[in-house]
Structure formats: structure tokens, C-alpha cells
Amino acid sequence: MNKNVAVDELQSFLIELTDLALTGKQAHWNLQGPLFLTRHEQLDTLVNDARLWSDEVAERIVAIGTPADGRVATVAEATPLTAFPAGFVADDKVVGLIVDRLDVIIERTRERIAALGEVDPVSQDLVIGIQRDLEKYRWMWAAQQH
Ligand SMILES: [Fe+2]
């Protein structure tokens, strides 16, 4: 196993999932509009899964012998996700904001899965499972766009 490649791929995934969890809460709190309750709850479901996924990814990094870095400064510096807009967010705008962020993570994770397949099939298996759920969330959020 090329440990460095595996850790790099997992560490960048940890950063993206941590950002997703924080962003989901930001949206959950500041949502406004007639679909508030549905999307408020949907966002928390996504946040809960993003936290579980980030925990699994971090623990995989440590299991292969490297410390995980989930510090807020690290996430802020390295995340590929655009900063979520400050302030209240309308329930019809939040859908696109979440889909856009899921798209970035999903696209990067497609490449990540290919890279991990070369070096560590066990880490790859973990990431494939998370990708399946990310793509399911992406579908369910995108289906609400009109
Ligand atoms: Fe809440």
C-alpha cells in the first residue's frame, strides 16, 4: 500500500465532509420560507450523515498509522467548497447551494476512488460506500429543484 497516497486522498475527503457538515448546519439554522420545516429537517439528516462519514474517514486515516487533521483552520484553508453565503437563506435557494456542494465532493470523490483503487482497496471500499450515499443525497436534493 502506498500509504501517503491513501492518506492524502482520505485527508482531503475528511476536509470536504467536515465542511459539508458545518455548511449543512449553517443552512439548517438560517433557512426561511414556506418549506422551512421539510428542508430544516432534511439538512439535519445530511449533517448527521456527514458527521458519521467524516468520523469513519478520520478513523481510517488513523488506522493506517497517520494522525487525522480535522482542525477548523485546516478545513478553512484546504476546503474546495465555496464559502456558504452569510445570513438568512431562502428555502428555494438552499437546494442549489447544497447540490452545488455535493457536486464538487462527488466529482472529486470519483477521482479519489480511482486513486485509492491503485493503492488501498480497503480505504477505497469505505469511500465507495460514502460516495453511494452522497449520490443518493444529490439526487434527492436535485429532485426538489424547479
Ligand atoms: Fe437543529
Short summary:
With 146 residues, the chain is mainly alpha-helical.
List keywords for this structure.
146 residues; mainly alpha; Ferritin; two-stranded parallel ribbon; 5 helices; 2 strands; 3% strand; elongated; binds fe (ii) ion
What's the N-to-C terminus distance?
Answer: 46 Å
Give the helix level as a range of percent: over 70%
Bound molecules: fe (ii) ion
Count of domain modules:
1
Class of secondary structure makeup? mainly alpha
Strand element count = 2
Strand order of the largest sheet: 1-2
Topology:
Elements: H1 3-30, E1 31-32, H2 36-63, H3 72-78, E2 89-90, H4 91-119, H5 121-142
Parallel strand pairs: 1-2
The structure holds fe (ii) ion.
Fe (ii) ion binds near residues 28 and 44.
Notes on the protein architecture:
This protein is an all-alpha fold. It has one domain: Ferritin (Up-down Bundle), CATH 1.20.1260.10. Helix content is 78%, strand content 3%. The protein has five helices and two strands; from the N terminus they run αβααβαα. It has helices at residues 3-30, 36-63, 72-78, 91-119, 121-142, and strands at 31-32, 89-90. α1 runs antiparallel to α2 (36-63), α1 (3-30) runs antiparallel to α4 and α4 (91-119) packs antiparallel against α5 (121-142). The chain is elongated and about 50 Å long. The mean pLDDT is 97. The structure holds fe (ii) ion. Fe (ii) ion binds at residues 28, 44.
